[in-house]
């Protein structure tokens, strides 16, 4: 989602996005809803859900970077 | 991305390289962390230095599996601020600078990476798209469009090509109409965006956004027939994609764009069955009833619209409730009940004030205030 596309499509998508984002977004996670802080498996990758301190602690312990997927549920 | 790339079994071999974190940006408990990440669109992928938690690479947009794998390599190099070929190292430096908000320095480093790139360099597409992104931040629309015209035709036909074409077209469209360079840029870049519609390797949500952009452009220049024709193609595309979806969630992911396409086509009723199916299959999700409220409002089915928006409000949480309130106010206005519309907007604003500061959508709140004041006047 490139920003200029967002600015152009914004007028149209603002009509339809029920969420209150100030940028339009695609609906890749619709229905995902709130999830627990427990780790969940997304395919082959085990994501820690909504717990940044846990991810940072794990990264430090294993000596690896953190990969973050930031999303919005709409 | 969740329904497609992130579920790809081919990614299993990368599991040990990172600590993997998924963040719902609208959850209150994530507010401080999200503010620090500097997220500007969805989805955004970031690579953080595991030792410090600092952002080393930020990428907003969808990716194919090979591009995602390349992003993982780039992320590790960005943490190290070096590594790989000279072009890779320059890209890593550029990513780090961009993550630090050093726009001009990042643009120079991205440009350097492109200059150093050997033929067939797999980083080219993302480097071009990232350079376009930092140029957009400077507001130099002409440079943005010129870069897109220069680089996009040579990119491999895939997501980066599609993104660069769309970004360049966006810059051209946002430029003043009397800019001498604008018309030629629009024509060339619009042709490239149209070309991207047929690329199966581009994710469906990105292609859908491109359709929406093309509809919007045609509307903007008063080409009503062209806009309708493109909206029809857009809706056909979405319906075909939804029919082939592998799960309820994957199918519902197309709902918002289906509503947009149906509205652009002037046929809101065509999206109603899909939204009813989503509400049936995802009973805890506020989105289907919220979208139904929009469709019913446009169809003049005001009572149904109010019932749907009430169901959506009961399920929604956080800032997203505000747009539902806004739709509800519009329904009352169309029903000829300004007092109820004003009450609804006041309720929305009172609710917005209860949200944490970082979750308050200031621009949208200002719109609601203006609308409430206009009704009250």
Could you characterize what this model shows?
- The complex is a heterodimer of chains A (74) and B (377).
- By secondary structure, chain A is an alpha+beta fold.
- Chain A has helices at 3-14, 52-62, and strands at 40-42, 45-49, 66-71.
- Chain A is built from two helices and three strands, in the order αββαβ.
- Chain A has a two-stranded antiparallel sheet.
- In chain A, strand 1 (40-42) and strand 2 (45-49) form a beta hairpin.
- In chain A, 57% of the residues are buried.
- Chain B is mainly alpha-helical and 377 residues long.
- Among the domains of chain B are: 1-116 and 123-138, 3-Layer(aba) Sandwich (Glutaredoxin), CATH 3.40.30; 283-377, Alpha Horseshoe (Serine Threonine Protein Phosphatase 5, Tetratricopeptide repeat), CATH 1.25.40.
- Chain B has 18 helices and three strands.
- In chain B, strands 2-3 form a two-stranded antiparallel sheet.
- The interface between A and B is large, with 63 and 110 residues.
- Strand 3 (66-71) of chain A pairs parallel with strand 1 (19-24) of chain B.
